Amino acid sequence: MAVKNLTDRTIKALKPAEPGKHYDIMDAGFPGFGVRVSEKGTKTFVLVARYPDGINPTPNPTRRALGKYGPLELAAAREKAREWVAMIKKGIDPTADQKLRAKEATRAAALKQERTFSAVSEAFIAEKLPTERSGKDVERDIRGIFVPVWGDRPIDEIDEIDVLAIINAKKKNAPARARNLLGDLKRLFNWAIDQRVYGIKSSPCDRLKATAIIGEKVPRQHSLSDLELRAFWRAVETLQYPHKQMYQMLVLTGLRLNEVAEASWSETDLPHKLWVIPAARMKARNSKARPHAVPLTTEMLAIFEDIKREQDFSRGQYIFSVKRGMSAVAMTGHVKDRLDELMRKELGDTELNHWVNHDLRRTVRTNMSKLRIRSEVAEAVLSHKLVGIEGIYNVDDMLDEKREALVAWSYRLHSIVNPPAGNVVELTAARTL
Questions:
Q1: pTM here?
Q2: I need a surface site. Which of 64, 84, 92, 269 has the fewest CB within 10 A?
Q3: DSSP string, 10-51
Q4: Domain residue limits, the chain
Q5: In a structure prediction context, what are the per-residue pLDDT tens digits for the chain, which is 433 residues long?
Q6: Which CATH topology does 2-104 take?
Q7: Given 3-state DSSP classes, what are the helix, strand and coil percentages for the chain, each rounded to the nearest 5?
C-alpha cells in the first residue's frame, strides 16, 4: 500500500489498476485517508478506521468509501474524513448516521409535502365537499384561485397578508364573491387545525372580518326589467347547447343555478310532466332539506324533449353536459360575459345594468307578484320554506298551484319577449318561446 502526499495533480496522474485488480494510495499527511483506483481508472476516496459496530468494542480496521473523485473534490473529501473521525471518537458510526439523516430528510420532505396547501386542500375537498350542495363551487374556487398561488407552500406558513392579497384583489370587482372566498378559506383552515396533523395551530383568517375588509353585506334587490328580460331571452337563443337551454330553464323555473345545472334524466318523468329534484341537491342541509317538485310547463317539456332527441347521453345521466352526460356543465364566468355582450347588442343604446345569474330567480318572483299569484304559491315555486308554524306543519307540495303559476309566468314571459308590434318600434322579428 503506497503512501504519498495526495494532491489533485497526484490523483489525476494515477493510472488504472491491472485488469481484475485495484490499488490504494494513502495520504501521508492524514492517516487512514486515501484513494482507491479501479481497473477502469475510477478513483474513490476512502477512510480506513475502526468503525463502531455496537457489539465489538475494538473492531478491526475497515475501509469505507467517502465518494468518487471528481464529484467530490480533494479538499471536501479531507473535510468529510475529518468529520467521520470525530464521529468515530464519539462512538458514532458515520455511515449509519448518514443513512439515518437521509431517512429523516426523506421523512421531513414527505411531511412537508403532506402539509402543503395543495395537499391539505385536496384532503378537505375529499372529506367535506362531496355531499354539500355548493361543494362543486367551493372546490372550483379552491383549485382555481388559491392552489395556483399557495399550492406548494406549507399551510402553516400562509399568513393573513397572503389571504388579504387575494381577497382585496377580488373585492374590487366582485365583493360578494370575495366574501364567499373568505368564508371558504376560514372553513378550510379551521378544518386543517381540527385534524391535528398538519402542523397548523392558528388560522390566518382568525382576525379577518368580512365586514371590515369588504364592507357591509348588501342584499341584492335587482331583478331584470322587461326590456332587459327581452334582451336576455333573445341573447340566450343565440347560445349553443347546453348553455342556451340552461339559461332558458333558469328563467322559466326560477330555480337556483346548481339545481338546474346538475339535473339528471333520472329526476324527470316527462310523460307525467314532472321533475323532482332530490333533497340532497336542494339548498337546505341535512334533515331540513326536502325534495322539490317542478311541474313541467309546455315550454320546459319541449326543451327537455329537444335535448333528449338531439344530444348524445351515452356516458351518463346529466341533462346539461358537454361530456355526453358523464358530468354536469360548469357555468364559468366567460359564459356569463358572452351573454352580457349579446344582451348589450340587443339593448342598443340602453345601458345594461349589472346582474348576476341569481337575479333571474328574483325576476321570476317579482313577476309572479305582478301576476297577483299568492305569496305562498310563489314561494313554493322557488322552494322557499314558509315561515313560522305554517312552515312546520304545511307539507302540501301545492303541485297544481305551482303548475298554474309557472304557466301564468310563461305566458307573461312570452308577452315580454314578443310584445305587440305597435308597442315596440325597435323589435326584431318575433321569436316564440
A1: 0.57
A2: 269
A3: HHHHPPPPPTT--EEEEETTSTTEEEEE-TT--EEEEEEE--
A4: 2-104, 115-214, 226-417
A5: 799 999 999 999 999 999 999 999 999 999 999 999 999 999 999 999 999 876 666 688 899 999 999 999 999 999 999 999 999 998 888 887 777 776 766 565 555 558 899 999 999 999 998 877 678 889 989 999 999 999 999 999 999 999 999 999 999 888 888 999 999 999 999 999 999 988 899 999 999 999 999 988 776 678 999 999 999 999 999 999 999 999 999 999 999 999 999 999 999 999 999 999 998 888 754 456 789 999 999 999 999 999 999 999 999 999 999 999 999 998 777 899 899 999 999 999 999 988 989 999 999 999 999 999 999 999 999 998 755 444 443 445 789 999 999 999 999 999 999 987 755 433 333 333 4
A6: Double Stranded RNA Binding Domain (3.30.160)
A7: 50, 10, 40
Q: What phi, psi does 264 have (nearest 5°)?
A: -130, 155
What phi-psi label fits residue 38: left (phi over 0), alpha (psi between -120 and 50 degrees) or beta? beta
Topology of domain 115-214, CATH? DNA polymerase; domain 1 (1.10.150)
- Domain 226-417 CATH superfamily: Intergrase catalytic core (1.10.443.10)
How many CB atoms lie under 10 A from the CB of residue 113?
12
DSSP class per residue in 240-261: PTTHHHHHHHHHHH---HHHHH
Instruction: Tell me the chain's radius of gyration from C-alpha atoms.
Output: 36
CA–CA distance, 246 with 347 (Å, rounded to integer)? 22
